[in-house]
Amino acid sequence: MKTMGKSFLLFILLSAAVSSLSLRAADYNDGRIRLILNESTGRFSLYYMTDITRARYESLFASQDPMTSLLTVNVNNAQYRLGESDTFSIRIGGNRNTPSLIFESSSLVVTEEFSFIKTAKAPVANGVKITLTIENKSTRSADVGLRLLLNTELGEGGTEAPFMTDVRPILSEIVFNGSSGDQLWLTRNDHLSLIGSISAGVEKKPDIIHFANWKRLNDAPWKAAYAEGRNFHDLPSNSIGDAGVAYFFDPRRMASGDSLSFSLLLAADSSQDDSFANGLAAYTASTHETPVAVQRSAPTAQRADNSAAVQTDLGSLRNIIAKIDAYINSGSPIRDEDLAALEREFSQIRSRYGK
Q1: What percent of the chain is helix, strand and coil (3-state, nearest 5)?
Q2: Burial of 290 (C-beta count, 10 Å sphere; 0-12/13-18/19+)
Q3: With bands split at pLDDT 50, 70 and 90, how would you rate the model's confidence at 315?
Q4: What phi and psi, each to the nearest 5 degrees, are found at residue 34?
Q5: Where on the phi/psi map is residue 63: left (φ > 0), alpha (ψ -120 to 50), or beta?
Q6: Whole-angstrom distance, CA of residue 23 vs CA of residue 36
Q7: Three-state SS at 337
Q8: What is the pTM of this model?
Q9: Phi, psi at residue 147, to the nearest 5°?
Q10: How do strand 25-30 and strand 184-188 relate by DSSP bridges?
Q11: 15, 213, 294, 337: which sits with the fewest CB atoms below 10 Å from its CB?
């Protein structure tokens, strides 16, 4: 095939990718919460409506990072990063009110289900309950555990502690276990807070919750080494002040046919109330109402064109197409090395969407 013919074929493939890429994610709106589930990456994102009049949402996680909200399953001391491992397929399940990400292998089904909640003083939904369920569908017993890693960012770069609990500020790396008296944690910027459960509102406490540099937590296959008092930097890398939270539910023996469930709570608050009056212990299920200033509609799943990660990739694809278009319009042959570079860039994007 001639070089220009190759570039034209790549142009067609890229155009198809742009039109279909955003179909791999779905978003669900309830009250002031927007939940985005990405079937390609196995990740979720949470947004909070900070401006009801304009229906303006802000991200509660590191929205530009496709690695945020990573779920890892530990099976007989072998770790699988769900969304990255070919061992597990991914699909979106559930319904409008309780959507879920479902990861399935030949022996296990891991379900990450979301239900909308509201805390004590919230008039409409302002958070989610995440229920993690493991089913052993094999004929053998297995030791199975889960880790959920969140890449938080609201508390980064400010003058206050990156995190605080209902008991103490968190100024450096720390681990909470089941004996901790802390009920919940909070991270915030100047106008928005993200609150997470430690023991408040959940039947089964996580075995540990590790607050540390996100990259250090992410690079560890399972548990990162803990160093009391260490800061939130990871040197000599450029991960400076990058905070993360990892929930661990340690491996339990599961016989054939057994099922295990764990849960945690995440909620947003824009009141900047230091009393934690909107704490998670008194949460209730959402009544599926929307803020009065926003057009009322039932919670719905739709294309997640506003997903920051998807939009970033769409922008990269359009940039590649623009380069190819310029080569075609110039009438000059494209060099093999330039075409190869474009193909590599396209392949990297394509691989993130299971193509």
Answers
A1: 20, 35, 45
A2: buried
A3: low
A4: -120, 125
A5: alpha
A6: 12
A7: helix
A8: 0.77
A9: -130, 130
A10: unpaired
A11: 337
Quick one: DSSP state of residue 6?
H
Tell which residue, 94, 100, 73, has the closest CA to residue 251: 73
Closest-CA residue to 156 (of 46, 13, 59): 59
Residue 41 burial class via C-beta count within 10 angstroms: exposed 0-12, middle 13-18, buried 19 and up: buried
Contact 185, 174 (CB under 8 A): no
Per-residue tokens: 211: 């607050």
Q: Which residues of 247-265 are buried (b: 16+ CB within 10 A; e: fewer)?
A: bbbebeebeeeeebebbbb
pLDDT tens, position by position, 316-327: 676 677 677 676
Q: Which of 160, 98, 156, 107 is nearest to 131 (CA)?
A: 98
Which DSSP helix (H) or strand (E) runs through 46?
strand 43-51
